[in-house]
Design brief:
The complex is a heterodimer of chains A (322) and B (249). Chain A folds into 2 domains: 2-182, Rossmann fold (3-Layer(aba) Sandwich), CATH 3.40.50.620; 204-320, TPP-binding domain (Rossmann fold), CATH 3.40.50. In chain A, 28% of the residues lie in helices and 27% in strands. Chain A is built from 9 helices and 17 strands. Chain A has helices at residues 16-32, 46-50, 73-86, 98-110, 219-228, 236-240, 271-277, 294-297, 306-320, and strands spanning 2-6, 9-10, 13-14, 36-41, 59-63, 89-95, 114-119, 130-135, 140-146, 151-155, 170-173, 185-192, 204-208, 231-234, 261-265, 282-287, 300-303. Chain A has a 7-stranded parallel sheet, sandwiched between helices. A 5-stranded parallel sheet of chain A has the order 14-13-15-16-17. In chain A, helix 2 (46-50) links the parallel strand 4 (36-41) and strand 5. In chain A, helix 3 (73-86) packs across helix 4 and helix 5 runs parallel beside helix 9 (306-320). Chain A is globular, with a radius of gyration of 21 Å. Chain B has one domain (2-218): Rossmann fold (3-Layer(aba) Sandwich), CATH 3.40.50.620. Helices cover 25% and strands 32% of the residues of chain B. Chain B has a 9-stranded mixed sheet with strand order 11-10-9-12-8-1-6-7-13, sandwiched between helices. In chain B, a hairpin with a 4-residue loop joins strand 3 (19-20) and strand 4. The longest helix of chain B is centred in the first third of the chain and has 15 residues, at 37-51. The relative contact order of chain B is 0.18. Classes of the chains: A alpha/beta (322), B alpha/beta (249). At the A-B interface, helix 3, helix 4, strand 7, strand 8 and strand 9 of A face helix 3, helix 4, strand 9, strand 10 and strand 11 of B. Strand 12 (185-192) of chain A pairs antiparallel with strand 11 of chain B. Bound molecules: flavin-adenine dinucleotide (FAD) and adenosine monophosphate. Flavin-adenine dinucleotide binds next to helix 6, helix 7, strand 16 and helix 9 of chain A. Residues 6-8, 36, 38-39, 64-66, 92, 95, 98, 102, 116-117, 119-120, 123-129 of chain B line the site of adenosine monophosphate.
Chain lengths: 322, 249
């Protein structure tokens, strides 16, 4: 028996979420008294693979089939289910991100396993196997029972701390017989910005709304983000107007993020916007309207003009030499 | 080709959520029901493709697992422009069961492609679309932010970390759609509302599916302590709070 973790890498380096997942898996495995097996698909060097052991993996299976270079949901699911069966996995873990949302539901059907998605903490494995997650776009939580022998779980990003371990994990190659003709989704072009801090990975996010008034006023948002090592974000009307790229829009219909700090400048705090940021640990609001709903959700607020407050904040950060 | 759009019937996003029966059941008194926002955008894109003479999309069918109470939402989709509707008569319970029921009907249909939303705004499962594709044993593409159909040829764009990919795919397949699939949802016009009354809404039953999950209890978030308001003349205080109290800088 085992807990199986589906890891993700970017150009051969594991994403932080992979270490989060392995850390989480280690805790689940402890409760079930079984080992953690991590699955890596793609070209990853051995010393990078070993890092999964530093967060609790006991065994690492590496798949390097050349037809799995881009995500094909059907074939990835096939490989993961083969591995799950080989390892007799009782719990299979994914991140609740684009890839995890694409694969976990398919795998759940293939293995006839209940799916617990978007989890925010560890499952309880006493008499019943229950999981805890947000529902109604962050307006409530549910405790849900998973009623099947095998369970598939997806973990919300940034909701679990890394836990180091001194496991000396073993690495094995796993061979699959996937052929070119098995792949039904052909990627014909890719448009990817490398080296940019991803909004979903960022620990600090500086975000602007319609209160910024014009795309020409984004300088301070970008400068503050740069100084704080933060990513930039925006509200939906801002991306709809084309002031900022669509990838930056947070909220119910945009990205759902969980940074440690979210600075909302000139954002009113509509329920749909809050749905994307309600997991932020600290929320700062800067808004001229003392009655703006953002202040009900914020931890710290300044009632004032962004065009004045942001430059001041920037000079304070500069002086402090963070 | 025929496009199927899966419709979730969900509480309007501004609904104040409440629970009854010892916090084990969602209280739907006074709730306004709407088409799940992603499904509304999917339907909008399906209509655009149908109207485009360069695409071979000819017919758009909406399909829902729901009781009779979901019919106003289904009629709204017909008023927006869907040609017909299928209602699988059952209380939607868990995603596995809903997907199995959808598959029970769709496996007998001639599918161009099926569109599902990335998540329902009630139970936020992000599950039905992927599950449905596996039940049907069809290829699927998730995080779809665009679909183009030229004659019989289909290409979809998929959002990936820091960018996007264009994928060519043969029909039939399942597209799980998100932001970008269309920008503004269509709203029904008077003529559409009149026509919707006469469009077919077929009610079918699918027995023998299984439920694998159940909701044990709900809880509301702890009320937040009130926001600490910092004087705009003293921005340094905000910085100090973030550094020393919140310890996030
Ligand atoms: C189904 C649905 C889904 C949606 N999904 C999303 C979503 O995912 N994300 C999202 O963001 N929105 C979403 N929306 C839109 C949402 O309802 C709001 O309209 C939107 O969030 C408002 O954006 P905003 O706060 O930038 O603009 P506004 O509401 O116009 O707020 C601007 C704020 O700036 C303040 N301001 C003005 N000038 C200044 C100044 N000089 N200094 C400081 N403050 C100033 C104003 O007081 C105001 O509070 C959705 C809506 C619907 C119906
Ligand atoms: N009861 C239902 N009937 C038909 N389609 C549904 C139903 N529930 C969910 N869906 C589809 O599945 C998508 C994702 O839902 P979920 O897995 O519940 O988050 C929705 O956007 C719909 O397209």
């Amino acid at each position: 028996m085992a807990v199986l973790v589906f890891t993700e890498n970017w150009d051969g380096k594991f994403k932080k979420l992979s270490f989060e997942l392995v850390s989480y898996a280690q805790k689940v495995a402890e409760k079930l008294n079984v080992p953690v097996v991590a699955l890596s698909i793609g070209e990853v060097a051995e010393d990078e693979l070993k890092k999964l052991g530093d967060y609790g993996a006991d065994k690492i299976l590496s798949v390097t089939n050349e037809y799995l270079k881009t995500l094909d949901n059907q074939m990835y699911t096939k490989v993961i289910s083969e591995v799950a069966q080989k390892e007799n996995a009782k719990v299979i873990l994914f991140s609740h991100n684009n890839t995890g949302k694409a694969l976990a539901p398919r795998l759940s059907v293939k293995l006839k396993a209940a799916l617990g998605s978007g989890l925010i903490d560890l499952p309880s494995v006493a008499d019943l196997f229950t999981v805890h997650k947000k529902v109604f776009t962050g307006k409530a939580f549910v405790t849900m029972e998973l009623n099947s022998d095998i369970k598939v779980l997806t973990l919300s990003q940034n909701s679990f701390k890394l836990i180091s371990s001194d496991n000396n994990a073993t690495i094995e190659e796993y061979l699959t017989d996937i052929q070119e003709s098995d792949i039904k989704t052909k990627v014909t072009s890719t448009d990817k910005e490398t080296g940019k801090l991803l909004l979903t990975d960022a620990e600090i996010v500086v975000s602007g709304g319609r209160g910024m008034k014009s795309p020409d006023n984004w300088g301070p948002i970008e400068e503050l983000a740069e100084l704080l090592g933060a990513a930039t974000a925006c509200s939906r009307p801002v991306s709809d107007e084309g002031w900022r790229p669509h990838e930056e829009h947070t909220g119910q219909t945009g990205k759902i993020i969980a940074p440690n700090l979210y600075i909302a400048a000139g954002i009113s705090g509509a329920i749909q916007h809050l749905a994307g940021i309600s997991s932020a640990k600290y929320l700062v609001a800067i808004n001229t309207d003392p009655d703006a709903p953002i202040f009900e959700a914020a931890d710290y607020g300044i009632v004032g003009d962004v065009h004045k407050i942001l430059p001041e904040l920037i000079s304070i950060v500069k002086e402090s030499k963070l | 080709m025929r496009v199927f759009v899966c419709l979730g019937n969900v509480p309007d996003t501004t609904t104040k959520v409440k629970f009854t029966e010892n916090n084990s059941v969602f209280d739907n008194t006074g709730v306004q029901w709407v088409i799940n926002p992603w499904d509304e955008l999917a339907l909008t894109r399906a209509m655009e493709l149908k109207e485009d003479s360069g695409s071979s999309v000819e017919k758009v069918t909406v399909i829902t697992v729901g009781t009779k109470s979901a019919e106003p939402t289904i009629r709204k989709a017909l008023a927006i422009g869907a040609d017909d509707a299928i209602r699988i008569n059952a209380e939607p319970t868990d995603a596995y069961d809903v997907a199995a029921k959808l598959a029970g009907v769709l496996k007998n249909e001639d599918i161009g492609f099926v569109m599902c939303g990335i998540e329902s705004c009630d139970y936020n499962g992000s599950a039905v679309g992927g599950m449905l594709s596996e039940f049907l044993n069809l290829p699927s593409v998730s995080s779809v932010s665009g679909i183009e159909v030229k004659g019989e040829k289909v290409s979809v764009s998929r959002t990936i970390d820091g960018g996007k990919e264009i994928i060519s795919i043969d029909t039939p397949f399942v597209a799980i759609v998100q932001k970008g699939i269309s920008i503004e949802p269509r709203i029904p016009a008077m003529r559409g509302i009149m026509m919707a009354r006469k469009k077919p809404l077929n009610v079918v039953e699918v027995p023998d599916t299984e439920v694998l999950t159940s909701h044990k209890s709900f809880e509301l978030p702890q009320p937040k302590p009130p926001c600490k308001i910092v004087n705009p003349e003293n921005v340094k205080e905000l910085f100090d709070l973030l550094q020393n109290e919140a310890k996030v800088l």
